[in-house]
Amino acid sequence: MTDQDDLLPVGLEDALPARARAITEAMRAVLDAMDGHGYDRVRPPLVEFEKSLAGRMEGVATRRMIRFTDPESLRTLALRSDMTVQVGRIAATVMASAPRPLRLCYAGDVAMLKADQLDPARQRLQLGAELIGSDSVAAASEIVGVAIDALKGAGLGNISVDFTLPDLVDTLAEKALPLDVDKREAVRRELDTKDAGGLTAAGGEAYLPLLYATGPFDEAIAKLAEIDAGGALASRIAGLRDIAASIGKRARITLDPTERHGFEYQSWFGFTLYAEGARGTLGRGGTYTIRGSEEAATGFTIYMDPLLEALGTRADEARKTLFLPLGHDRDAAARLRAIGWRTVAAISGSEDAKALGCTHRLEDGETIALG
Amino acid sequence: MTDQDDLLPVGLEDALPARARAITEAMRAVLDAMDGHGYDRVRPPLVEFEKSLAGRMEGVATRRMIRFTDPESLRTLALRSDMTVQVGRIAATVMASAPRPLRLCYAGDVAMLKADQLDPARQRLQLGAELIGSDSVAAASEIVGVAIDALKGAGLGNISVDFTLPDLVDTLAEKALPLDVDKREAVRRELDTKDAGGLTAAGGEAYLPLLYATGPFDEAIAKLAEIDAGGALASRIAGLRDIAASIGKRARITLDPTERHGFEYQSWFGFTLYAEGARGTLGRGGTYTIRGSEEAATGFTIYMDPLLEALGTRADEARKTLFLPLGHDRDAAARLRAIGWRTVAAISGSEDAKALGCTHRLEDGETIALG
């Protein structure tokens, strides 16, 4: 073994004790919040047939998956790069006959063969919840609320939710703002990048006002309603207003109706989660249709790295940790652990209790603070 | 997508809600028990350089690893098939200067390209703790105790621990029961398979009595002490007695000094964990030397599948779950969740609360049991 073998490949890293503990705590809090809203955790495997992972949902970058040949079936297997598709498979197959709406949640590692340009990580801890059987306004309101509760449960304060309308162009292009089918993709792209010049060049002049119906929810939705003279968006606007009302003051709501990056497979509603302290997005969600089973669903995904970034480095309050000298009373130590003490036992007698992180020492059955 | 794509590859499976919940609970309990004894969790990545995983410890079946080429480094990467080697790497590299003894624990999925004959699973959830910097009797006593506490924490009752002496033949062959170097491997193998005829044929007649120093600890260790006329095993026998004494009545202790399968890399002490209700072993542990850094260590590994088997199907007490009708008071629901209620909200008004697993219904601010 060379020293180089001791390094980790680019984009893969160890979470050492402090970070691992923060991950465990945040993960438990997020899972507990989802569980509290009736979402049952499922644990799909790390590896599946590539076709099953790649085939169930649009917009998943299959080229980035880690693939290899199964010696058993001689078929191509892949390491999961997204757990949403696995939950969709479960809903469509082994849980096809479970009552709807079906509420499932998950937390697990996903891996990519190649990092993307914005994020060098090749492994991410993905957490999320899916409400399967509905893409209604009520379903969307619930999912946004669960996402907010999950982030608050993990300890986040200032949460922002940015709403979008992923199928906006399709909805308008038919009648309200007519657009040839072959021009729609270009118009979507220019709207997504907020390029007014490009939008005009692509034949989307009529869509220009949409670029300005953006910002804090109340003002932005009012602007969108003004643009929607023909009423093509009326039900969507009403839906967004209902969802925003259901959230109330629990999060700051903004609107960016033309945002489309990251919402390639969502239908009428999408949202992005932000929090003070994190540079990027914490996660995304929205309404969609499960490919294959064509069942309506609403869900969200959050990622652990930006969540930890938003949580920041907390003052690492020294955990009360009790040093147990050689020959200590094992039963007494067990009783102290049972009431919440963390213990570190001497095994040689030459230990430096403080260097090992201890705050107290067991002496004659008493817990004495280390000076 | 064909129906076949909906199936999972052989040896890989989904954990659906009931099983996933059991896994989450057992995993939290095991991790909390290890944490209580001062073991810090680390989270190494799913994927590493193959050489790093394969090179750090003997006895790891590298042929069974899932391997692929890294497009970044053009080197071979592998999906981890054992987390112990990853913890060894962490101890030897990024945590090389952390004070000793270093107590680390882990829990995570490992995967194999091919199943072994006894276990068709190609993915396993591995949990364990490593005490790095010592392979003393005190270290071994602590690790066996932590393993027992972890299993008890998960809810197991009747735990058995079977002690072994992995380097028994090497210790005896030098002087007490002389054996040519080229005969030792055959003698080890025949002892491991308890084949008296084969042992004799392999030139190991003198080792025959070892086959009978097995069973409940007190009697078996007395027999082993009788065989050890020259005193070559004296320190080992004293060590085993000390470890057994430290466990006291917390588990049933047995001895099988010639057991070697599964202890290919352990040094003087090894143990296997059993529990009533599980057919196979729950896990193993012992003393070893971390390859590369050559640091002494003691640790154990347990696997989730046999642990769940030993826990058995518990009477699935219906969790108190509260149905929230359409138009319910959201703040009241949040307050009820905060005091431990699990809620399931109506989104259509046509839900069957009982079919969705609810036991209660919120009515006029009161929780009413469903009839």
Provide the domain count of chain A.
3
Major sheet characteristics of chain A = 9 strands, mixed
Mean pLDDT across all residues of chain A, rounded?
A: 93
Stretches of chain A where pLDDT is under 50 for at least 5 consecutive residues are none
For the largest sheet of chain A, list the strands in their spatial order.
Answer: 1-5-6-12-11-10-7-9-8
The radius of gyration over CA of chain A amounts to: 25 Å
Q: Give the SSE order of chain A as H and E letters.
A: HHEEHEEHEEHEHHHEHHEEEEHEHEEE
Indicate the percent of residues in helices of chain A: 25-40%
In total, the number of strands of chain A is: 16
CATH topology of the largest domain in chain A: BirA Bifunctional Protein, domain 2
Binding site for L-histidine (chains A, B): 82-84, 126, 130
Keywords (chains A, B): Glycosyltransferase, Transferase
GO molecular function, one term (chains A, B): glycosyltransferase activity
Protein name (chains A, B): ATP phosphoribosyltransferase regulatory subunit
Structural summary, described in words:
Two copies of one chain form a homodimer. The longest helix of chain A has 20 residues, at 17-36. In chain A, helix 2 (17-36) packs antiparallel against helix 5 (137-153), helix 5 (137-153) runs parallel beside helix 10 and helix 9 (217-227) packs antiparallel against helix 10. The first copy, chain A, folds into three domains: 1-157 and 276-317, 2-Layer Sandwich (BirA Bifunctional Protein, domain 2), CATH 3.30.930; 167-259, no CATH class; 321-369. The radius of gyration of chain A is 25 Å and the shape is elongated. With 371 residues, chain A is of the alpha+beta class. Chain A contains twelve helices and 16 strands. In chain A, strands 1-5-6-12-11-10-7-9-8 form a nine-stranded mixed β-sheet. Chain A has a four-stranded mixed β-sheet with strand order 14-13-15-16, covered by helices on one side. Chain A has a three-stranded antiparallel β-sheet with strand order 2-4-3. Chains A and B meet through helix 2, strand 1, strand 2, helix 3 and helix 4 of A and helix 1, helix 2, strand 1, strand 2 and helix 3 of B.
